[in-house]
Amino acid sequence: MNRHVISVLVDNESGVLSRVSGLFSRRGYNIDSLSVGETQDSKLSRMTIVVRGDDKTLEQIKKQLLKLVDVREVITLIPESSVYRELMLVKVKTDADTRAAISGIVDIFRAKIIDVAPLSVTIEITGDESKIEAFVDLMRPYGIKELVRTGLTALKRGDSKIQA
Q1: Residue 146 in contact with residue 120, Cβ under 8 Å?
Q2: CB within 8 A of 79, min separation 6: which ones?
Q3: Model confidence over 101-145: pLDDT tens digits?
Q4: Tally of CA atoms within 13 A in the half-sphere of 57 that contains its CB
Q5: Which residues neighbour 24 within 8 Å (Cβ) at sequence distance 6 or greater?
Q6: H/E/C letters for each residue in 50-62?
Q7: In terms of C-beta density within 10 A (0-12 exposed, 13-18 middle, 19 or more buried), how is residue 159 classed?
């Protein structure tokens, strides 16, 4: 099954997220990742939805989304012509012996230590999924206490934009 990233422009109103996610659950489609936020126009929000399926499934999802009253536009974002990013916060065990090594890895990945405690540090990192996964792999030996990821967010490259 192929991975697809869908960008959906919707009205910024209560209940829209519920209607969109309900459409997926009613049809038996799983959402791998979902991020939602207000756009430059406060009346609109953008959803970035990651799903898996064949091309026929993708087309069916897009058609179903466009039937919803609150949905203004639906496009598939192609990896080669889009920018994908994700944010992760991770709390890692640390002590006097490991703090410098962790800090060095943080610097290499252009991440930030945003909180320091006697036995842990909390790190913020943004990037594409492969960067995030590589960072997690390097932090595992130190001991990950907590981890949270935003899910993928994406835009088309260049001057074109999704419009209502």
Answers
A1: no
A2: 5
A3: 999 999 999 999 999 999 999 999 999 999 999 999 999 999 999
A4: 16
A5: 30, 31, 51, 61
A6: EEEECHHHHHHHH
A7: exposed
